[in-house]
């Protein structure tokens, strides 16, 4: 990455600025401004998050916001209510209070002497979500947004549910936020009241997993904050970005199709990170691309960005499966719209037949899909996030636990771009069931690399808001959309469709093991072939501002292991997200964070599915800063446990906080939550 030191504008930073809301709550903001901003007001760019500007996002903030400020923008990074140094409490993600506060923040920014009244909003994941949600509320100053790795449908495409099945990430992220929300306000910024603020948060900590488990199908809870309830609410220009290594990709074709505002789409090879420092490469000059967007919509400069085709996709080459990629070779393409015209993307129907996967034939006999509940351990992480061994590995073991259909070799290879969709008729042995579909790239050597996948809770097969349990033995016609993908199948490779009745630990097991039967006939995979012409790399090389000054005291060591108890047949997947121990040199704050997630499943007994997660957070400062009495040392240990029977989820959690050797807070939860749709 090219580190920039000289910019058209000299930049000054306001380390901490209080934004006082109407109810007296103070939100903490970090601001970067061109030096002459007061005499030459300019547009502003807002990023609004719960992840603590002081340490949580400080590294990426310093790569990004000073760069935009150096190019003539006021950049404001605000911590939400109840997070970082901001006052108050956070009750839930995307709550109405969060949005009301953001509207006040936008008005505050627009009224500052350094702002010309125009504003853009940007963010990845949570910040991408609320950029869309705020755009739907249409505050007058907000003219454009850049939303990365976000969704238009909180139920269908977030970390909670997928195809109506509960993702294990639902519990994983609840545990993450239990720890993140317990982080201490920095005494160097808030003074002696830090203990009172911290204790208030700990005493009122929400149990997010309980909230999310109480909404197992798409109800009004999920409709709030889902902009697909009325796409027409958004008038600001929207640039949507994601990566094939991320989970937030299916929202992009929907928004490109249904939004009526000015819009563009970009999908590269990346995991859940900003594309100027994400892996796998090629990283791109995201900041330069964003500057073209901001200049066009906030400064009325014709940068040509809206003259280009609206959709840019990276078709990644098929390569041997690996748990982590630093680079994915491939080709860039652009389409004139989405859905793309038939001259750019053509849909071909492939039949799952007696002879495999092909353009003709039929399935003359029923076939069983009888996977153990332990199938799916090679799926990889739902969201590759912490730069660990998160990607899917060789799928052959899971293929062996599935019903598979292989194509003949594609002698010249093929390009895939779009969402494959499987249409089949199945029966279940129980009044429940799951259908999982994987599309794999099978090399001549036999290696099986995951291309894309889809999953469906058969209780919600008709609609995500309607619970209709299967009638055992009664055929059900279902359609399973697979994730959007751009992929170049190498010459001589085959396609494989693998059908399973479990996928653990991607999703929680059904209430009982339910084997399926694929009915005879013409089960069909609709496969989108790309006919778009390749283009040269359309972006500049990545740039950033100067890196944050951080001393690494212990490097992070993320790890993922799979083990099997041969006696019981139980399979355990353990994910260790160790983010190391670092000290921020500018202000002396030291932070250590690590997590361990343990997911276990039994091949036949669904009541033995369980999850245990522990997060450890430590923060300290050994020496006061600038003569302040701001030395401290705290530790918070947060734990979640979930198990079930056929009727009930049993959720337990605890959080124990210390300052030095002194116990500050000890809180425990025990909840029983009925299984309604799962």
TrEMBL record:
Presence of keyword Metal-binding: no
Domain Xaa-Pro dipeptidyl-peptidase C-terminal, first and last residues per copy: 291-545
Keyword terms, alphabetized: Hydrolase
Top-level taxonomic group: Bacteria
UniProt entry tagged with the keyword Hydrolase: yes
Gene Ontology molecular function terms on file: hydrolase activity
UniProt cross-references to NCBIfam families, sorted A to Z: CocE_NonD
Protein's UniProt name: CocE/NonD family hydrolase
Record organism: Chromohalobacter sarecensis
Organism classification: Bacteria, Pseudomonadati, Pseudomonadota, Gammaproteobacteria, Oceanospirillales
């Amino acid at each position: 990455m090219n580190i920039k030191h000289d910019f058209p504008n000299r930049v000054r930073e306001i380390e901490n600025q209080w934004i006082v809301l109407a109810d007296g709550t103070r939100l903490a903001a970090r601001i970067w401004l061109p030096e002459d901003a007061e005499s030459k007001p300019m547009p502003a760019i807002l990023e609004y998050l719960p992840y603590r500007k002081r340490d949580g996002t400080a590294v990426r903030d310093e790569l990004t916001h000073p760069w935009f400020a150096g190019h003539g923008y006021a950049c404001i990074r605000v911590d939400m209510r109840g997070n970082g140094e901001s006052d108050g409490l956070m009750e839930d993600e995307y709550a109405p209070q969060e949005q009301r506060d953001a509207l006040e923040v936008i008005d505050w920014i627009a009224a500052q002497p350094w702002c010309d009244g125009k504003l853009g909003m940007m963010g990845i994941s949570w910040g991408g979500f609320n950029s869309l949600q705020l755009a739907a509320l249409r505050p007058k100053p907000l003219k454009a947004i850049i939303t990365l790795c976000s969704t238009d449908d909180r139920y269908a495409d977030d970390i909670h549910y997928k195809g109506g099945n509960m993702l294990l990430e639902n519990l994983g992220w609840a545990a993450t936020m239990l720890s993140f929300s317990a982080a201490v306000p920095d005494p160097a910024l808030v003074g002696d009241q830090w203990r009172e603020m911290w204790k208030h948060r700990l005493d009122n900590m929400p149990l997010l997993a309980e909230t999310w488990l109480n909404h197992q199908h798409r109800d009004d809870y999920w409709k709030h904050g889902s902009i697909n309830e009325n796409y027409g609410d958004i008038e600001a220009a929207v640039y949507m970005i994601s990566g094939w290594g991320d989970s937030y990709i299916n929202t992009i074709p929907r928004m490109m199709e249904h939004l009526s505002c000015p819009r563009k789409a970009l999908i590269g090879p990346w995991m859940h990170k900003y594309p100027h420092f994400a892996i796998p490469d090629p990283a791109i000059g995201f900041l330069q691309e964003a500057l073209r967007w901001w200049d066009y919509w906030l400064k009325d400069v014709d940068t040509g960005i809206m003259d280009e085709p609206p959709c840019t996709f990276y078709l990644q080459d098929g390569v041997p499966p690996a748990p982590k990629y630093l680079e994915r070779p491939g080709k860039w393409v652009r389409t004139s719209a989405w859905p793309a015209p038939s001259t750019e993307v053509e849909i071909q129907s492939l039949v799952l037949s007696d002879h495999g996967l092909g353009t003709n034939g039929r399935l003359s006999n029923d076939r069983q899909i009888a996977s153990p509940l332990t199938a799916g351990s090679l799926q990889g992480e739902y969201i590759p996030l912490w730069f660990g061994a998160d990607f899917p590995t060789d799928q052959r073991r899971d293929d062996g636990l599935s019903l598979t259909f292989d194509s003949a070799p594609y002698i010249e290879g093929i390009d895939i771009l779009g969402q494959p969709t499987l249409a089949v008729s199945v029966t279940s042995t129980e009044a429940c069931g799951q259908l999982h579909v994987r599309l794999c790239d099978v090399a001549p050597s036999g290696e099986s690399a995951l291309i894309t996948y889809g999953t469906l809770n058969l209780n919600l097969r008709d609609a995500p808001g309607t619970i209709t349990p299967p009638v055992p033995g009664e055929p059900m016609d279902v359609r399973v959309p697979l994730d959007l993908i751009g992929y170049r199948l190498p010459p001589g490779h085959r396609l494989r469709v693998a059908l399973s009745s479990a996928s653990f630990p991607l999703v929680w097991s059904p209430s009982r093991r339910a084997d399926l039967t694929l009915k005879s006939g013409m089960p069909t995979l609709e496969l989108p072939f790309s006919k778009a012409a390749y283009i040269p790399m359309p972006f500049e090389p990545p740039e950033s501002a100067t890196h944050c000054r951080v001393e690494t005291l212990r490097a992070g060591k993320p790890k993922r292991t799979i083990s099997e108890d041969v006696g019981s047949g139980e399979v355990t997947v353990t994910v260790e997200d160790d983010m190391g121990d670092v000290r921020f040199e500018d202000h002396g704050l030291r932070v250590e964070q690590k997590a361990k997630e343990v997911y276990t499943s039994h091949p036949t007994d669904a009541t033995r599915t369980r999850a245990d997660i522990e997060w450890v957070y430590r923060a300290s400062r050994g020496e006061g800063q600038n003569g302040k009495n701001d030395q401290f040392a705290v530790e918070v240990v947060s734990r979640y446990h979930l198990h079930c029977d056929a009727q009930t989820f049993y959720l337990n959690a605890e959080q124990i906080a210390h300052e030095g050797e002194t116990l500050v807070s000890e809180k425990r939860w025990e909840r029983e939550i009925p299984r309604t749709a799962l």
